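Consider the following assembly input.
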Amino acid sequence: MPLGATTITLTIYVNLELISVITNDGRNIVGILKGFDQATNIILDESHERVYSTKEGVQQLVLDLYIIRGDNISIIGELDEELDASLDLSEARAHPLKPFIH
Amino acid sequence: MLFFSYFKDLVGREVTVELKNDLAIRGTLHSVDQYLNIKLENTRVVDQDKFPHMLSVRNCFIRGSVVRYVQLPPDGVDVDLLHDATRREARGG
């Protein structure tokens, strides 16, 4: 690592109630962060995928324990659970996120 | 290291990060690292109607490799300072 460089850690997210991950192919996976490394590989527990579509509300697919390779991760966000509970996902209509084109 | 130092000076400022999937996220720059990974606080998606996917996310980590643009505050750029720093970097530090 170059001198003076820092690496942002995800420590503050670990074992926090829920995090939301957006992958390079545009999928949105929500779960509990159990661990990560310097390549942003992550382990999620009790995870599910939220599938957005314009035809129907958000579908939630159970994935449970999941490891995501860092290469494939775009965004990791802390989910505000109160806010999340107040959203009516069955009413949410949206195009799925586009894949990231590098 | 020029851009890394440059972004470090912008910590605490409000920026908009546009990603390679057209999603734009606005928030306060919390930290940045040598990969130009970015952490934002008090985030909101610019077009929430089109992208409701992150409505309940208030702070996030963005992988540097997926960033297309970072829109800076207008007074966030000291051009003269950047000129000097660029010349210094080009000369090899």
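The mean pLDDT of chain B is 92. Ask yourself how this observation constrains the way the partners meet.
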